[in-house]
Amino acid sequence: TWTMVNVVDEQVERIKEQVGDGRAICALSGGVDSAVAAALVQRAIGDRLTCVYVDHGMMRKGETAQVRRDFEEVFDALDVVDAEDQFLTALAGVSEPEQKRKIIGHEFIRTFEAAEVRVFGSLSPEERGDTAYLVQGTLYPDVVESGGGAGTSTIKSHHNVGGLPDDLNFELVEPLRTLFKDEVRAVGEQLGLPSTMVWRQPFPGPGLGIRIIGEVTKERLDILREADFIAREELTRAGLDREVWQMPVVLLADVRSVGVQGDGRTYGHPIVLRPVTSEDAMTADWARLPFEVLEKISTRITNEVSEVNRVTLDVTSKPPGTIEWE
Ligand code: XMP
């Protein structure tokens, strides 16, 4: 019968078979998928795994520090890379969503290649092995929506699937490729990962880069980071973190509307709240957040983030909308 214990044992065996006595780096995003993938691989190959977390400058407020704290507890070797300049330079002038995703996927891989050289480059050829392995937390829905499943077309290129370059120098290790998120969480609990890690709401690898509608710049990211921080803080205060699957906060960076604050006219940007409920992210419904929570978020964002003068709510299910706007 199919149980989580079986999944863990079976995947650990498969990883041992694939990697042998080789070495691997794991692309750690801070989310549950890559954490569970890394934990399985750590169980299989021990200290021949190094986890690499890339701060691409599109993470949320305080996120990198928190990931560092949480993951150092669980993983023996953690390498944190500051790649903000690299990613934002590569994204300069780009607004088209698929192009953004491809660029981000490409820069991720180049960053992991550089990390592999930094981490394993000083080893002897025998110790380093012939193959460079890259562990990713790719799930079944990522594969399907990136056009990898039979008879499907690309909806959006998930950064760890459709954004991979043709000349990839890695052999991929993807132990979660047949699983859905709820199954991954069960495996994470089976492995004894902390519940903050296992129950963390999903956050896309491309980060806030696909939540800025328009060109991604540092200035726009800082605006969105503030608004997103407030929205998440209020959701947590209301005790709704588990009920809501996730709540993307989106900045319509190329849109401005007129408002009034104090005695003066404002001409600022709208923020969109996109709270959803879901089982597996393949379909979703818009979350009926209490009006008081919405009011609190709206008041605080327009008071505390001077560039934002309007907060709107996305009431579209998936389909026809997707969860993320890009
Ligand atoms: P969509 O927008 O396709 O999102 O309805 C479904 C789920 O996937 C997340 N998502 C991503 N996760 N890399 C990821 O790791 C990506 O490129 C990516 N794009 C979307 C999204 O947050 C939602 O949970």
From TrEMBL:
Record has Ion transport as a keyword: no
E.C. number(s) listed in UniProt: 6.3.5.2
Keywords associated with the record: ATP-binding, Glutamine amidotransferase, GMP biosynthesis, Ligase, Nucleotide-binding, Purine biosynthesis
Organism: Nocardioides daedukensis
Subunit structure: Homodimer.
Catalysed reactions listed for this entry: XMP + L-glutamine + ATP + H2O = GMP + L-glutamate + AMP + diphosphate + 2 H(+)
Gene that encodes it: guaA
Name by which UniProt lists this protein: GMP synthase [glutamine-hydrolyzing]
Coiled coil ranges: none
Gene Ontology molecular function, alphabetical: ATP binding; GMP synthase activity
